[in-house]
Amino acid sequence: MIQARIPSAGYCIYCGAKVYSDDRKKLGDEHIIPFSLEGELVFLEASCLSCERVTGRFESKLLRNTLLATRVNLNLRSRNSALSQTKALPLFVDTVAGVQKVLVNTEDYPTVLHLPYLPDPPIVSEIGNLGPTEYPPRPFTKFLNYNKEILNKKYGLSNWNHVSLDNRLLCRLVAKIAHGWCIANKKVTEYTPILDNMIIDPNLESRELLSFVGGTPPEPKTPKELHQIRAKIFPVEGIDFIVVNVRLFAFLGTPTYSVVSGIMGDIPKNGLPNCSARTKGLPNFSRISIPAY
Ligand SMILES: [Zn+2]
C-alpha cells in the first residue's frame, strides 16, 4: 500500500498548539482516515497530545466496538497484532440472569455493517430544516457474514443483541476525516476551517457537530476503492461552503457523507447562517435503529 505523507502545517490542526505536550516538542502524526481502516494519508506532525486523546477516544469507541467485527471480517490491519490473530469475538445475549457474553469464532460471527443514510447537512440544507426529505434516513445494511443456523447449532444461540451505532460518534469521525483532508489539500490562508473546536469537544455526547454533517442520496455506482474522499464548493446565502464527501467502505456500496468543513475566505461579520433555526425539528439520530432480520 502506498502511503502519502503530507508535510506538517507546523501546528496542531485542531487547537493550533505548536508543541505536542509540556514534555515533548514534536507534534504527533495523524492518519486522515484511521490507520485501522487502512488510511493511507499521513499528515505529519499534526496533532497535540490533548487533541489526540479526544480524537483517540471516539475513534476507538467506533473502531473497537461497532466496527470491530467488520474490521476483522475484511481483514483490515491493526496496531494491535492480537487483532489479526483474533479467533473469536464476543456476542452479547439477554438471558433471565442478565446479559451474557458468548465467544463466537470469527468465521461464524454474525457480521453486519450498518451505516445511516443522512439528509443534507442542516447548515446548507435548502429547506431550512430537515422536514420531509426524499430519502428519509434509514440504515444501509450489508451482511458480511451471517448464518443463523450455525449460531443455533454450534452455540445454541437463537437471539443476541445487535451492535448499535452511535451516530454522533460516526459524524465526528467523518468530520475529523474531512477536516484533516481539507487542511492537507487547501491552504488555510484561502479558507476558514469551522469544525476544529467541535471535533475536539471533550463531551462526546455533544450534538453541535450534527448541523455540519449529513449525507447524499444513495450513489448509483459502487467504486473499487476501500474509501473515497472528494470536495466541492457549495454556495448558500452568499457564502461559499467547502463540503467534503466521505464514503467509508465505498466498495461495499455504502452511504456517502457530506461534511461542511469550512468556508472560502473569512467568516462573514454576521456569522454563519442560523444553525439553530435550521436544526429545528432535527430528528434524533443519536442512535441508529437497526431493523430486525
Ligand atoms: Zn491540539
Textual characterization of the structure:
The chain is built from 7 helices and 14 strands. With 293 residues, it is an alpha+beta fold. The chain has one domain (4-264). β11 and β12 form a beta hairpin.
Can you lay out the helices and strands and say which pair or pack?
Layout: E1 4-6, E2 28-31, E3 41-47, H1 49-66, H2 68-73, H3 81-84, E4 88-95, E5 98-105, E6 111-116, E7 139-145, H4 148-155, E8 165-166, H5 167-185, E9 191-193, H6 196-199, E10 213-215, E11 228-236, E12 239-247, E13 257-264, H7 275-278, E14 287-288
Parallel strand pairs: 1-3
Antiparallel strand pairs: 2-3, 4-5, 6-7, 8-14, 9-13, 10-13, 11-12, 12-13
Zinc ion binds at residues 12, 14-15, 17, 47-48, 50-51.
Share in β-strands = 25-35%
Ranges with pLDDT <50 over ≥5 residues? 127-135, 281-286
User: What is the average per-residue confidence, as pLDDT, rounded to a whole number?
Assistant: 86
- Tell me the structural class: alpha+beta
Taking the sheet with the most strands, its summary is:
5 strands, antiparallel
Protein name: HNH endonuclease 5 domain-containing protein
Organism: Ruegeria atlantica
Keywords, please?
293 residues; 3-stranded mixed β-sheet; globular; binds zinc ion
In short:
By secondary structure, this protein is of the alpha+beta class. It is built from seven helices and 14 strands. It has one domain (4-264).
